[in-house]
Specification:
Blueprint: H1 4-21, H2 23-44, H3 47-67, H4 72-91, H5 95-110, H6 114-117, H7 122-137
Helix pairs in contact: 1-2, 1-3, 2-3, 3-4, 4-5, 4-7, 5-7
């Protein structure tokens, strides 16, 4: 058993392997992992672990979107992963990370294909982005 970060890096490698082997299985397991593990870290993890979790989640989904192999759900969820990363970064005092994540969330949201944007509760997400933006710039 290594450090938490080493364990997270091994887990990321596992996810990438699973994504290559079986995209459908990857999508199902990833959705479960983000929901359960993310909720646990979001509510109970210490601050560095919370930030590392959200950075890891965003980086895996970002890599898949940028490689053109992401599912519609992953493309749809990436701006939310990034805005959540910005929120957590603010909570732990990492303003530079928060600014970068917020800028990327806004850019990804603006460039999201229309059919995916329509499936997202658009007004609610834009309210969320505005709230995060106010905290980052305020």
């Amino acid at each position: 058993m290594g450090t938490w970060l080493e364990d997270a890096q091994r887990a990321a490698a596992h996810w990438e392997h699973l994504a290559d082997r079986s995209p459908a299985e990857y999508a199902a397991r990833w959705a479960w992992a983000i929901h359960t593990v993310g909720a646990a870290f979001g509510e109970q993890g210490d601050e560095p672990e919370r930030l590392a979790h959200f950075e890891l989640a965003a980086s895996i989904v970002r890599a898949r979107v940028d490689a053109g192999v992401a599912s519609d759900e992953e493309q749809h969820d990436l701006p939310a992963h990034l805005s959540n990363l910005a929120s957590v970064a603010l909570q732990v005092g990492e303003l530079d990370i928060a600014r970068r994540a917020l800028r990327e969330a806004e850019l990804r949201w603006a460039n999201l294909p229309e059919h995916l944007r329509d499936s997202h509760p658009e007004a609610r997400f834009e309210d969320h982005l505005a709230h995060v933006r106010a905290r980052v710039t305020g």
